[in-house]
Amino acid sequence: MSRDFHKCSTEDLDDAAYNALIVAEIGRLRAQINEKAVCELASSLNDGKPCIIEYPPKVIGLGALIGCANYHARICFGNGSPSWLMRVPRVSGFAVGFPVSLAEYLIRSEYATLKFLETTAVPAPRAFSFGIPSQSTDHGIGVCFLLMEELSGKPWDGQGDTAKVWKGLAEIFTELEKHPFTKAGSLYVESPNDLPSVSATASDRFVCLYPYGPFETSAAYYTAWAEQYLALIADGQLYPQFPIEAYLVYRFLQDNATQLSDSEDKFFLKHVDDKGDHLMVDEELNITGIIDWQMARIVPRREAFALSLVSADMRALCDGNVSLSIKDVALSNALREKGSGLASHTGDEKVRRFFWGLGLEPKWAYASPLANAILHVFGVEQGWDEWKEVALKRYEGDERLKALVEASGNKH
């Protein structure tokens, strides 16, 4: 995590002030976009068809085409031709911006992922091009961007005939299992004409980590993930309010990475930010496509097909209640009905708890239930206080932990 990640607190802002900052941010971003250059590139990639850029009429709420990490403008070709989207990272976001170097990596990685998906039966947007201003590959557009197809349907809100959604998701998982890789990481290209290959892992869903890897074993992959968190905690960039407790939790996860490791050297594509609204559905809840592949990575089998956020009871997850939700069971049953062995990876919460971690909680009162849940799901029967006392002795030779303990003592 760079110092660029640290933004001003928004806790004291009312809705009007918060919205005004968003409007100002998007105004600055739009001012950087060379619309003529956008249309020239899009037309050249679509048989010379003329087009216009259509900006969402608002930047807040339904129809805004804005997410935590990206802003979108619609490219309309007319004559009934399908529209495209221009996806632009919010690198200048007052609350969610992230370093340009990371945005550039994520653009390349998402493009590579979408190009790979075009070779499969997984429904996803087609990708047409991308541009990076610092590399002079932006065609004069002025911002980092990704041009892709706009899918039909609307983001799933978790409601309706969920059985149909789980069935569709089971079919997609089964398709992804047909396309193994030999390394863990993320797909990547340098230029739009390159073939996707596995390179460094593209951050994580909390956008805390810089690209790292790739890895030839699942143990190395999981250990490196925990190590990045440990380094950030020791440096004061993560969990500064309770660094000792946080360090102990992630050191425990690092030591228990073997519980998630696979013996086989096969890895599969995983959509990391899969909280449900990544699924586009039609009126009958058929899945029309999957969007938001920005943080996707190639992961061990157990992680690729384990229970994740799409079927989680988020309140139970954040409250530290270790249990399988009704949706978890339904997804598992859908996989089993497919005759797939993938249902065997949905029996517990280990993978989900491992990667949710302490969830960037700002206070130990909020994080402690998550810590206890992690201990529980990985087989620890002790309560937190008893376990912490033992863990401090176990890891007393860890120099970074020593420094955190000493710093804490100096504050009192």
TrEMBL record:
Q: Which residues form the Aminoglycoside phosphotransferase domain?
A: 107-309
Domain of life of the organism in this record? Eukaryota
Residues spanning the signal sequence:
none
The transmembrane residues are: none
What protein does this entry describe? Aminoglycoside phosphotransferase domain-containing protein
| Source organism | Podospora didyma
Specify the taxonomic lineage: Eukaryota, Fungi, Dikarya, Ascomycota, Pezizomycotina
